Amino acid sequence: MTNNDILRRIRYIFDLEDSQIISIFAHADLEVSRARVCDWLKREGDEDFKECSDQILATFLNGFITEKRGAKDGDKPKPEKILTNNLVLLKLKIALNLKAEDILDLLKSVDLKISKHELSAFFRKPDHRHYRECKNQVVRKLLEGLQKKLRTD
Questions:
Q1: With the CA atoms of 124, 144, 95 and 99 taken in that order, what torsion angle do they form, in degrees rounded to the nearest 10?
Q2: 2 Cα distance to chain centroid
Q3: Is 49 left (phi over 0), alpha (psi -120 to 50) or beta?
């Protein structure tokens, strides 16, 4: 999945308007214009399409955490320069206050069954011996499960 796909899906799942997306970026101290947001949300074939970098999506997800959970005391987290699927999964877990069982249920609802041990491996540090790289399919299915649960239309 591309960063633009993730941004588009989150926008659709949570029915976010452009102004709300701008506000979410503002939570993470990034000022963006409506035109820039629209360019990130366009499809790849569109001439105005702009690629959403890892750092931009990380900033959005940090703002999304603040939007959903409230501001945390102390310094705001710095957006990662390289964003992996493991980090995307972790940031969504934090933002939506999901427990392991919640994630497993969401994945199961869209026919992806993984064990609790496999899931916990995604949240380990990369140098841990049981760390496992999260594939695009897991993030895609989690977003699909969220859509199925939150969007009834």
A1: -60
A2: 11
A3: beta
Q: Are 119 and 104 in contact (CB under 8 A)?
A: yes
pLDDT tens per residue, range 14-73: 999 999 999 999 999 999 999 999 999 999 999 999 999 999 999 999 999 999 998 888
Q: Which structure tokens are listed for 60?
A: 């959005």
- The string of DSSP letters for 59-99 reads HHHHHHHHHHH-PPSSSPPPPPSS--HHHHHHHHHHHTT--
Return the residue matching tokens 């399919």.
Answer: 137
Task: Fill in the DSSP letter of residue 153.
Answer: -
Q: What is the pLDDT of residue 77?
A: 86
Here the tokens at position 65 are 């955490």
Output the pTM of the full model.
Answer: 0.94
Separation in Å, CA 7 to CA 37, 41, 60, 114, 124: 10, 7, 8, 25, 24
Asked if 148 and 109 count as a contact pair (C-beta separation under 8 A), the reply is yes
How far, in Å, are 3, 13, 31, 67, 102 from residue 27 at the CA level? 19, 20, 9, 7, 26
